[in-house]
Amino acid sequence: MPAFEVSTIKPHDFNHGGMLGFISYPGGRVFVGAANLKMLLYFAFDLQSFQISGVPAWADKNRYDIEALPPASSESRTAVQPPMKATPSDEQRKMLQNLLVERFGLKFHRETKEGPVYLLLRGKGQLRLEAPAHPEGDSRGGVIMMQGGIADGSAFGLNISMPFLARQLSSNLDLPVLDRTGLPGLYDFQLEPDDPTNHDMTAAIVDAMNRLGLKLKAAKGPVETIVIDSVTEPTEN
Known about the structure:
By secondary structure, the chain is an alpha+beta fold. The chain has helices spanning about 35-45, 60, 75-80, 90-105, 160-175, 200-210; strands at about 5-10, 20-25, 30-35, 50-55, 65-70, 105-120, 140-145, 155-160, 175-180, 185-190, 215-230.
């Protein structure tokens, strides 16, 4: 499995703030800020929190800052001036998995069972998806929850693929969303608010997908789960 050449793990200092989440810099350096174990598992395995079980109590409160550098031969290092990204590549996810195994003593197994899911499908309307303005950039987007819990229908996508959109929707719906659109490639889209009084995120997502020319359908499907057999607080640098 690919591994970082060098990595440091430090307790996060809340007195000095700092960045929250994952970022990959040009040149290959990776930083994960103020991340608890659940966040690290999310970045490493690309699964939502409801797809990870057996996480110990300390995994919620203990937060870490991690800096790591891939080997010179890795894709992250050899790419010509890769842009700064907030989404791990497949190679970086495998390196994060290795870091969790080596530094956190992670032991786990995977289970896949049939359960409730949503299918993301093509709708009958015209697609409101455009070619990305900056296809080299990071993928971002989703349906927006405004202050006060208002889900007014605002949504956007920048350089976004359908599998990426499905993952973003999954985090809001607390159920896996499986891409069945058959739409390849990357897209941009922008939806303005259409219901400023709505507080129902599921209704906002269904509405937004319909407006994009897509649709969500409740179904049964494979639900992948990571089961943590054992894990400890990280070893010192």
